[in-house]
């Protein structure tokens, strides 16, 4: 899908990038999808300044007006689901079903969700103050009012350019913030289509700005800009730490959704078919390029061998290839460099003493960045393949004996995003879930409730996202007190 080179979106105008353009590559075919703009630091700063200038008027609009614009944007995205999903597939290598439902479909749903006007004020019970140095006795009433933070920098991940960007932009706009979006360099074109939809829906100039680039300087300029009040970032823990240092120096608000190494605790009494299907999503969904994947399986001894056998059989049955083909389940990873990284981890697992039970090799395909789903057994929790986020279709299996050991192994991690528990003993499953030091726990499921708070402990992030929690994340709470 090559065409005219993409321009930046700054202050309501489409402008030529100072740094020229670079090719966006289809991971499945290695062909050029289009030409993305390379912004300069000055243009990134101009986008932040435009967002600051637009903030006053936008934050003063009625919530119902902002909601109406988001609703129109949802409709426009939904109406163009076909071409938008085609572009998303070309940029990310997602299968057709994933591109349509989980990328563009979820983006439309998120705009629609935040078109619901949420109450922004809460009455606080009156307080009776006795007479004292500050004056006579009185009754004081109070309100807690949610105010927009200001300018929110939205820095998105490459695995889902539509849903991830919409999940940041929609609640920020609903709360009255303005935004500067810095998309991942691998697949920024979809985010520019989102900006077009928002512009067509009636978003005023400067309220939404998009600047892209392969150079780290673009993101660095956005994060460091004095016009930016908050950074919402999805990506690696290493980059998140660097962003947090900059935010800390300037006292900027942060919402960080970082890495994960999800532990899947499978007890002897688990429904193995359900557990295998859930864990198997790591092999297929986004080709394992998802932070919520159950990549670290902790299997109780009584079920260990059967679980390894079934996971191996599951992995080897999955069709790997062109994501446009209806039968494909596993598409490519995002780039040649990332493929080499995933392959290096499989080789490292062998060196550390793990047994590669299935996959890990490069499929015999002429083009594309493919890795066969890999299962590594006989692992220990101190191996690097069990501790570091691989972000690919690789699952490691570690045995355990008793519940206490399983909890200790699960919590022995830098990360704490989402863990999973499979057991027919529901009381035990929930007991274990409460002991896991992680932002979310799936009990006998890998499904998510999209109103439940999302975020991590430890190296998996700061703050909570999704549903009303996303609105709270990009707002400040103001107290208004008066004599009753």
TrEMBL record:
- Residue span(s) of domain Aldehyde dehydrogenase: 14-480
A family per Pfam: Aldedh
**What keywords tag this UniProt record?**
Oxidoreductase
Signal peptide (UniProt feature, chain positions): none
The protein's name: Aldehyde dehydrogenase family protein
Question: Which species is the source of this protein?
Answer: Streptomyces thermospinosisporus
């Amino acid at each position: 899908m090559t065409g005219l080179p993409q321009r930046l979106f700054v202050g309501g105008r489409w402008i030529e990038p100072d740094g020229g353009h670079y090719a966006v590559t289809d991971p499945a075919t290695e062909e050029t999808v289009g030409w993305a703009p390379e912004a300069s630091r000055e243009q990134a700063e101009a986008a932040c300044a435009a967002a600051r200038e637009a903030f006053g008027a936008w934050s003063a609009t009625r919530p119902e007006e902002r909601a109406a614009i988001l609703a129109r944007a949802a409709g426009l995205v939904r109406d163009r689901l076909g071409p938008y999903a085609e572009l998303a597939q070309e940029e990310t290598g997602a299968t057709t079903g994933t591109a349509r439902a989980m990328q563009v479909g979820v983006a439309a749903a998120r705009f629609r969700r935040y078109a619901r006007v949420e109450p922004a004020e809460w009455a606080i019970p009156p307080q009776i103050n006795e007479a004292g140095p500050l004056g006579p006795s009185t009754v004081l009433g109070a309100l807690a009012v949610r105010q927009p933070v200001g300018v929110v920098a939205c820095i998105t991940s490459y695995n889902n350019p539509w849903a991830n960007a919409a999940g940041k932009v929609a609640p920020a706009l609903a709360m009255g913030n303005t935004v500067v979006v810095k998309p991942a360099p691998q697949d920024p074109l979809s985010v520019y289509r989102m900006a077009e939809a928002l512009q067509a829906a009636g978003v005023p100039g400067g309220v939404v700005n998009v600047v892209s680039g392969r150079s780290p300087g673009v993101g660095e300029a956005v994060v460091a800009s004095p016009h930016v009040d908050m950074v919402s970032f999805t990506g690696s823990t290493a980059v998140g730490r660097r962003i947090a240092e900059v935010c800390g120096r300037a006292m900027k608000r942060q919402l960080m959704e970082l890495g994960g190494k999800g532990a899947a605790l499978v007890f002897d009494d688990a429904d193995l078919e359900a557990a295998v299907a859930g864990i198997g999503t790591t092999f297929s969904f986004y080709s394992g390029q998802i932070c919520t994947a159950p990549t670290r399986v902790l299997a109780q001894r009584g079920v260990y061998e059967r679980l390894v056998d079934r996971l191996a059989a599951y992995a080897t049955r999955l069709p790997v290839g062109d994501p446009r083909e209806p039968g494909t389940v596993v598409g490519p990873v995002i780039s040649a460099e990332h493929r080499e990284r995933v392959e290096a981890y499989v080789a490292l697992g062998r060196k550390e003493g793990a047994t590669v039970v299935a996959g890990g090799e490069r499929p015999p395909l002429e083009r594309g960045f493919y890795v066969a789903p890999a299962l590594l057994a006989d692992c220990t929790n101190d191996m690097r393949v069990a501790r570091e986020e691989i972000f690919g279709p690789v699952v490691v299996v570690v045995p355990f004996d008793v519940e206490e050991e399983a909890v200790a192994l699960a919590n022995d991690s830098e990360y704490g995003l989402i863990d999973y528990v499979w057991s027919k003993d529901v009381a035990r499953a929930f007991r274990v879930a409460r002991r896991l030091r992680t932002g979310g726990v799936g009990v006998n499921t890998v499904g998510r409730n999209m109103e439940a708070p999302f975020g991590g402990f430890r190296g998996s992030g700061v703050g909570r996202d999704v549903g009303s929690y996303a609105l709270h994340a990009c707002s400040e709470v103001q107290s208004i007190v008066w004599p009753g």
